[in-house]
Amino acid sequence: MKFYFKDQAFSFELLRAATYAGYQGAEIGECLATAANIEEGNFDSWFLEWKKTADRTYKTAQDCLKKKHKVSAREAFLRAHNYYRTGEFFLDGTDERRMENFNKSVMSFEAGMQLLDSHFEIVKIPYEETYLKGYFYGAIEDHKTNLKKRPVLVFIGGYDSTLQELYFCGVAPAIKRGYHCLVFEMPGQGEALRKQNLFMRHDSEVPVKAALDYLETRAEVDMERLALLGMSLGGYFAPRAAAFEERIKACIAFNVFYDTFDSTINQNPQLSQILSLPIEKREQMLAMAEEHNSNLRWMLNNGKWVFGLKHRYELFEEMKKASLKGIAGKIKCPVLLTMGETDHFVSKDQLDTLLEEIKAPKTVRVFTIEEGAEEHCQEGNHALFHQVMFDWLDEVFHYNMEK
């Protein structure tokens, strides 16, 4: 699917931003009007135009709030947040504009969340010598203060996720279906990366354990009906954690990653030759390869940042650690595996190989071009993914069907 831009990375990120319109995170007209002013392939142009749209929308939100137009303010804050997040996407991690933009994005989102009619709470999950920031949401039926004991969806992101974005991708549809929801930052994401210098790690069971330990302290959590959803690279993180954590009673890979290194090489075959070169030549060749490839340029530079690396080529050693080989067979809970028919990040063999190794009950759903859900993480048709995922989860937990 190409959306306005011919450049795949620009097209996909525009589609991603627009998809959140389903839960008031965007408006298609604002997205297209912004895109019309962007120089295709120019990362700086992308940032500047989205920032203009975000600033304008944030001002609208503030004006609405001053006049006590609660719903209008909430929706404008959420759109402003998404536009700030989208604008930041292609910036280098060392770009000084990134932190200011991130702070505005978070401020906008949390201002919108404070205007929710249902329960929203900022939490700090004890983790090693520090904490992981999270949000706990109550099911809409329980309103703000009277939280009943219910099933809980724990939701984690991936290679470039922010805590706030996950609201549109899974939280909003969860709480309206009667689930409580915990989302939290893994090391290498959001504030954990930007402010705490916590870099991404392959052993996702460690931060996930911290989150589950935290949930054990909350009376409104039904620990016997606890699901873990992982989006994008979270499609590796979630199954990995489920292999080590029996408290997870259902696991959803929102686009599978069986072996991150193999998938990346399969989708970018030009990298094989570069990685066979002597180390001193790899960095130069990777820089040349990314020059006219927005996807590759973003992937390499983002990887340096989230893993705290000095060189691009070091990223591939980190990728090799992120594999479910010899691990997926340890999963005991039911698993839902999803992917898009034309996913540009994940190769089809990833799903086939993972299916062979998982012995637990498993369900597979491949989303198609005909459905308009063929892209990575079903950007373009989240409503269909949510229907498939939550219907499956309701059946696994015998929930909602009981009513």
Describe this structure in words.
By secondary structure, this protein is α/β, with parallel strands linked by helices. The protein contains 16 helices and eight strands. The chain has an eight-stranded mixed sheet with strand order 1-2-4-3-5-6-7-8, with helices on both faces. Helix 3 (43-66) runs antiparallel to helix 4, helix 8 packs across helix 9 and helix 12 (279-290) crosses helix 13 (294-307). The chain is globular, with a radius of gyration of 20 Å.
| Biggest β-sheet description | 8 strands, mixed
Helix content: 40-55%
N- and C-termini, Cα separation: 39 Å
Q: Largest sheet, order of strands side by side?
A: 1-2-4-3-5-6-7-8
- Round the mean pLDDT to the nearest integer and report it: 94
Q: How many β-strands, per DSSP?
A: 8
Element order: H for helix, E for strand? HHHHHEEEHEHHEHEHHHHHEHEH
Number of helices: 16
What proportion of the residues form beta strands (DSSP E)?
A: 5-15%
Q: Structural class of the helices, strands and pairings?
A: alpha/beta
Uncertain residue ranges: none
The radius of gyration computed from the alpha-carbon positions, rounded to a whole number of angstroms, is 20 Å
How would you sum up the global shape? globular
